[in-house]
Amino acid sequence: MNPFAFLSALLGRGPQLDDEQRRRLQRLASPPPLDGRPLQTQRFVVLDLETSGLNVERDIVLSIGAVLIEDGAIDFGRQFECTLQRQLKTVTESVLIHGIPPSALARGVAPAEALLQLMEFAGDCVFLAYHAPFDQRMLTRALKTELGYRLQHPFFDIADLAPMLFPEAFVQRGGLDHWIDYFKLSMAQRHHASADALATAEIALILFNRARRMELDNVYQLSQRLAHWHRSRSAAQHAL
Amino acid sequence: MSKADAFAEAGKTAVLQNIQGTIQFLQAFPPFDQMEAGHLGFLVENCQLRFYAAGDPVLRPADGRVEYMYVVKQGHVIGQRPSPTGSGMQNTLEIAVGECFPMGALVGERPTRTDYLAAEDTFCLQLNREAFARLLGLSVPFRDFAMRGVSSLLDQVNQQVQLKAAETLGAQYSLDTRLGELASRSPVTCTSGTRLRDAVRLMHEQHVGSLIMVDGQQRPIGIFTLRDLRRVIADGSGDLQVPLDLLMIPDPFHLPPSATAFDAALAMTQRHIAHVCVVEDERLVGVISERDLFSLQRVDLVHLARTISSAGSVAALAALRGDIAHLIDNMLAHGASPAQLTHIISLLNDHTVSRVIELTIARLGDPGVPFTWLVFGSEGRREQTLHTDQDNAILFEAANQAEAERIRQRLLPLAREINQALDQCGFTLCKGDIMAGNPELCLSRQEWLRRFAGIIHNPNPEHLLHSTIFFDLRAVWGPSEGCKVLVDSLLEMIADSALFQRMMAGNAMLHRPPIGRFRDFVVASRGAEKDTLDLKIEGLTPFVDGARILALAHGISESNTLERFRLLAERGVIEAKDAASFEEAYHFIQLIRMQQHQLQERAGKPLSNRLDPDTLNTLDRRILRESFRQAQRLQTRLSVRYQL
User: Fold this and answer.
1) Which helix (H) or strand (E) holds B610?
2) Cβ-Cβ contacts under 8 Å, B19 against chain A
3) Does residue A188 sit within a domain?
4) Residue finishing a domain among B256, B282, B297
5) B589 half-sphere exposure, CB direction, 13 A CA radius
6) Which residues of B touch A81 (CB under 8 A)?
7) Are B230 and B128 in the same domain?
8) How far apart are CA B452 and CA B467, in angstroms?
9) φ, ψ at B243 (rounded to 5°)
């Protein structure tokens, strides 16, 4: 047990689920294998988390935006967005970035319920996110803490896939904004979890189109190519 | 609210963030801009967003029954159909951001006939068929849009124009108001045998300026107006006991209740009358007076025409030009169509020309030989705008060459004076000297025939250019029989010359509509005309040239472009629905052109036909592009027909 969970348990705020929630937890779909099914038939969920800060050990998830890509298209009717019920001890400057006022957090959905709904929404998806390792670690910790659930769904990082598939863009580890500009996407509002998730999802559609043309039409080939790309990139960096 | 409901509610409002953004995007475009927010929400919630890289197919006929409505969210889609020549595909549609397709196939529940592909990297919203059907039931603007497509957009434009007019003038009427609605009061009538005394008393008591005499079946048999009373008194025969039967104008002119205010105004102008009976099933149901129309229009068309026809000097005529401009201004504001306006301008111009000729003859003396004043070009086609120059000539009858020369020498000084006087009245002298005062254009019928034969049998570029001017001809003043015989001979000669027809069709392809394969509009890339296109030469000329060659080749003597299309459809040369599309497109380009001229005139700028399409609103820009597309279609038809 990590110190944080220990503390939570001590304060009686550990995974306290009612029976119905326990049953729902049991019924969650198992993570998908990274297999050879075409991208078109793979279910993807594009995730964007707003957090209280950038420290993956201490900061917490404040809101979740998720956009579903199914059958190769973004489904407008099935998007997920939820603000979590949180009481922040201190209002840090990050409130200026995520823009979620304490009052909205107070009105939010109980974290366990919110996360359960997210995982029900996600099903057997492959998660996509911009700077995915961050979202993956934040979500993993939140699920562990709130639900006692071990997240094993695969994550793909759009911030890696984009420069790998569009080397001509010369965007290395730029921010999401660089790619929004590069693909000339028109965004209504930024730095809102669901708006960012939508932008990331639109980029994902463009990337999958390119991947198919490069005959990388499934997540297995994509992950192989990505590993190779990482190796050659770090080799190139060492050579410098 | 239960806990579960509260969660659902929180989830819903959150989802709305992205939905809301998409709704806002849609609201910039028709028909979404007229739809209720709730219906738009329904639409977006049932949408999927899909990406197509440049060149990717979006929808093909082979995909079977259309399952989705597509809205371009970003990028640009083109529609292609097999070219009528059988070789390859040709672009028939360009679909820009905010536009929907394929409405026809979706409503008809059939596969599309067009191949749609992404012209650049493109995102499309897809609405599934069931949701589309639901939305048709929910939203009236959406249903109208889906069912009527582009023509519903045209209606919107007309509504916009009239709405603007209503705002500025506070009038709820338009020239399209039916006479049945205007002439609602029961007309004042009398029967045969009524004496003048009783007739005048009746008119006085009823406060009317006209009295209609009807028979036992309420059929109008005569009209007596205050103007007629003035004539009777002036003649000195004011015997009040005379039966009105002897004084009235028999068989008064009448129109059906379905005719419009415009028809009545036109009839009054042409016939120099101030009252029109409204007759249904031979029975009198109302009377429309000049004054009724005057109060309706605040524009005294009839009065203006009469003033022109009785103007005492060229200077007075010149002064009336300003009134014509004002009249057109008001009529445009009242929602008159461009065809109505060009028709009215031509009509008033005809009155002016006739009056100028009469005044000049009165000043210089009668030359003693009958002659016909011919007009060419836009005047010949009755398609003049306020911005016009002279294209005229003289036709006369002569027994032989020597006589022709003699008559010519007699007419030329008069013709030159008329040209100068017309210039004073605002008809600029023709730079190419296509004017009656030019000895080469003051010809006998035989000489005209020879001249036309020369053009047809030797279609060099100069002759082809002449044909585009001379072959839209019409007599404005003087005996018209000679002109009719001339036109008939012209049509015969053209029918016999396949080579000339083909050359003329080729000539009609010279001016290409300004739309490109991948871009919205093709505009000048440099110089003072940078970013503009020419509405007249690039937009209207393809229609005018296309209609001319088809009409002349099929023995149609009518010179007006829209009439030519109508008659061509009647004779099965082109399809009726093509004729209607060409007419709509031609109308629209002309409307944009006239609105621009109006603005330029008000701003005191020189009139120009060059337009920067970016200055138009989204709707106008779309329709203009679609209108140019129709011009392109017409040219494609010509190239197939004449194998160019």
Assistant:
1) strand B610-611
2) 76, 79
3) yes
4) B297
5) 29
6) 11, 14-15, 17-18
7) no
8) 8
9) -65, 140
- With CB atoms and an 8 Å threshold, state whether A195 touches B21: yes
Is B632 part of any domain?
yes
CATH number of residue A113's parent domain: 3.30.420.10
pLDDT > 70? residue B2:
no
Residues B194 and B291 in one domain: yes
Note whether residue A34 is domain-resident. no
State CA B382 to chain mean position distance.
10
Q: What is the mean pLDDT of residues B574-584?
A: 87
Identify whether A33 is part of a domain.
no
Whether B508 maps to a domain, the answer reads: yes
User: Cβ contact (<8 Å) for B121 and A195?
Assistant: no
Tokens of B127: 């609405």
**Residue A168 belongs to what domain range?**
40-239
Q: Give the helix/strand (H/E) hosting B265.
A: helix B261-271
Indicate the pairing of strand B210-214 with strand B220-225: antiparallel
Tell me the C-alpha to C-alpha distance, in Å, between residue B216 and each of B276, B281, B392.
20, 14, 51
C-alpha distances in angstroms, B597 versus A123, A179, B66? 63, 45, 44
Residues of A in contact with B49 (CB under 8 A): 73-74, 76, 201-202, 205
Cross-sheet strand order for the sheet of B442-444: B442-444, B392-396, B372-375, B474-477
**Do B503 and B606 belong together in one domain?**
yes
What is the tally of structural domains in chain B?
3
List for chain B the helix, strand, coil content (%; round to 5): 55, 15, 30
Whether residue B454 is contained in a domain is answered as no
**Residue A218: strand, helix, or coil:** strand
Is residue B81 located within the same domain as residue B199? Answer: no
**Model-level pTM greater than 0.90?**
no
Asked if residue B626 lies in contact with residue B539, where contact means CB atoms within 8 angstroms, the answer is no
Whether residue B121 is found in the same domain as residue B209: no
- Asked if the structure places residue B534 within a domain, the reply is yes
Distant-in-sequence, close-in-space partners of A228: CB < 8 Å, separation ≥ 6: none
Range of the domain at B27: 21-146
Q: For residue B397, name the pLDDT band (cuts at 50, 70, 90).
A: very high
Evaluate if residue B184 carries a pLDDT over 70: no
Residue B5 predicted with pLDDT over 60: no
Into how many domains does chain A fold?
1
Q: What is the pLDDT of residue B57?
A: 94
- Coil/strand/helix, residue A47: strand
Residues from B contacting A (CB-CB < 8 Å) are 7, 10-11, 14-15, 17-22, 24-25, 44-53, 56, 74, 121, 123, 125-126
Q: CA B290, CA B272: separation in Å to the nearest integer?
A: 11
Please answer whether residues B297 and B265 qualify as being in contact, where contact means their C-beta atoms are separated by less than 8 angstroms. yes
Interface probe, candidates A21, A67, A78, A81, chain B, greatest B C-beta count within 10 A: A81
pLDDT of residue B617: 75
Inter-chain touch A107–B17, beta carbons under 8 Å:
no
| H/E element, B297 | helix B290-297
Q: Give helix then strand counts, H and E, for chain B.
A: 24, 21
CATH code of the domain in which B40 resides: 2.60.120.10
Within this chain, do residues B206 and B91 fall inside the same structural domain, yes or no?
no
- Give the model's confidence band at A97: pLDDT under 50 very low, under 70 low, under 90 confident, else very high: low
DSSP 8-state symbol, A228: H
Structure tokens given for B10: 């929180």
For the ranges A213-222, B99-108, B150-159, B618-627, the maximum mean pLDDT occurs at: A213-222
Q: Which of B265, B297, B329 is the last residue of a domain?
A: B297
| pLDDT level of residue A47 (50, 70, 90 thresholds) | very high
CATH number of the domain within which B637 lies: 1.20.120
| B7 contact residues in A (CB cutoff 8 A) | 109, 113, 117
Asked if residue B187 and residue B138 are part of one domain, the reply reads: no
In a domain, A21, yes or no: no
**Do residues B524 and B635 share a domain?**
yes
Residues of chain A neighbouring B20 (CB-CB closer than 8 A): 188
